[in-house]
Amino acid sequence: MLIPADFGLSTFFITFAPVKYDVIIIGSGLGGMECGITLSRRGMRVLILERQFQPGGCMQSYKRKDCCLDTGLHYVGGLDVGQPLHDLFEQYGLLDLPWQRLDRDGFDQITIQGRTYRFAEGYDRFVEELAKSFPEERAGLQEYVKMLQSTDEQWLQQTNAYDYLTSIIHNPLLVSIISGACLKMELRRKTLPLFTFAHGNGTFIESSWRLCGEGNILVNRLREVFESLGGTLLCNAEVTQLMEQDGRITKAILADGRTFEATTFISNAHPAITLGLVRESQIIKKIFRMRISTLSNTYGMFTLQLKLKANTLKYFNHNKFVYATDNVWDNIAVAPEQPQVKGILISCPVPTDGTDYANIIDILTPMKWRYVEPWADKVPGKRGEDYVAMKDDITRQAIALAETVLPGLSEMVERSYTSTPLTYYTYNNSPRGSAYGVRKDYSNPLGTILSPRTPLPNLFLTGQSLMLHGLHGVTMTAQYTCDEILKIED
Question: Of 262, 309, 336, 430, which is most buried with the most CB atoms under 10 A?
């Protein structure tokens, strides 16, 4: 770098050598930030490059008028002492954030065919609560919670979730009920591994929590911890190319022309996006690129966020899952010409104004890419009246289904905000707007559960597309990625 210096009549240039980092991380989502903290604690000089104007990925929140809205943080499981996330969140400085424990007698409430069933906290209490309605299925419920605590990862990865559930539970309605909180994953009857199903349900039964306040509280804490350890985070820093030299990545090139060098690189982006950054390679073979680029991705989500009129809806300290069908596994199996809302998750952020009334509620429902693909080449805000009409139709359907458990909801709404898979595609660089990354397949675990390692010895992956999604899954994966790097360093 040349900086002009002027002393009197002469001008000359001072040359500064560019900083070379130990690790450069692409993307400041949860996995990227956690990797940054872990490696900084080991004394490494770490740089995180974020393409957006603020960090956090799906954890961040944003403002609309007087509303603060979250993008993907709704609730988290397993934070109590001795549970999976307790020690890890303590390590990342997240444990002392203002977490609120959800109702122990019914943290998730599943409504099917007009009847509501409660998920109680604790494995024994979970069984007892559901056995009240299905006493003949007690043995199957006990087998189910035993499976949730299994550590046999190979068996879980190679077992079909739906086939397993129907082998131990004989009442189809109960199968739907215990699967009913799975709008936080893609329920796919033919492919979903029991591994994904178990990790997406077990920790929430141990304990479930909401953050009191916006998601940026969590993001800001991660940033504070990372920077206190000497880490550097740059926003508006979109990586467009990773340069390979002598079989290793040597530098990251940004859209604005800046370059940064490092010994090791981690990408928190989707694996296909990551390989696209390595434009020319002597190490990455075409067959590997094809394998990654042709992996199937999970469906996206339609998110409806409702700003409510003051003092109209009492806060509820649980999640509501509501279905218009008696088989939740068919929630998105049928693909008609127009999107149909068959199941929703209703989440209620904790009021921060000192009242007992909800200010916002979030409603989520699965949505396939095919419904938004016609507008994929349009920029946000300029997708036309047809796109708006499509979103309005889904909004009406979602509110109508929500009113089966929240009567009069439509009259409580002051205004609404929506997002579709196009939103995830545009802002989070998620292929086809996928909400949960690469689709896992129990019949092909080696092909769909990805290693943090790539053919390039100093390029690593992290994030939801590798093993598991969600806060728990991404945190586990970040640990796995860092372990692989530290093996080399040690």
Answer: 430
| End-to-end CA separation in angstroms for the chain | 33
Return d(Cα 41, Cα 30) in angstroms, integer.
17
- Are 362 and 305 in contact by the 8 Å Cβ rule? The answer is yes
Distance in angstroms (rounded) separating the CA atoms of residues 323 and 309: 26
Q: How far apart are CA 309 and CA 306, in angstroms?
A: 10
DSSP designation for 108: E
Strands 108-112 and 115-119: antiparallel
- What are the DSSP calls for 375-432, one per residue? GTTSPTT-SHHHHHHHHHHHHHHHHHHHTTTSTTHHHHEEEEEEE-HHHHHHHH--GG
Strands across the sheet containing 300-308: 115-119, 108-112, 319-323, 343-347, 360-367, 300-308, 413-419
CB 55 within 8 A of CB 235: yes
Adjacent-strand bridge partners of 301: 366
Please spell the DSSP secondary structure of 13-35, one letter per residue: EEE-PPPEEEEEEE--SHHHHHH
Integer angstrom CA distances of residue 336 from 331, 367, 388: 12, 12, 19
Taking 90 as the threshold, does the pLDDT of residue 363 lie above it? yes
Q: Which of 279, 293, 297 is nearest to 456 (CA)?
A: 279
Tell me the per-residue pLDDT of 82-133, one tens digit each, with 9 for 90 and over: 999 999 999 999 999 999 999 999 999 999 989 999 999 999 999 999 999 9
Tens digits of residue pLDDT in 192-227: 999 999 999 999 999 999 999 888 899 999 999 999
**What is the amino acid identity at position 75?**
Y
Listed residue (362, 360, 366) closest to 343, CA to CA: 366
* Other C-beta atoms lying within 10 Å of the C-beta of residue 238: 14
DSSP letters spanning 125-144: HHHHHHHTT-GGGHHHHHHH
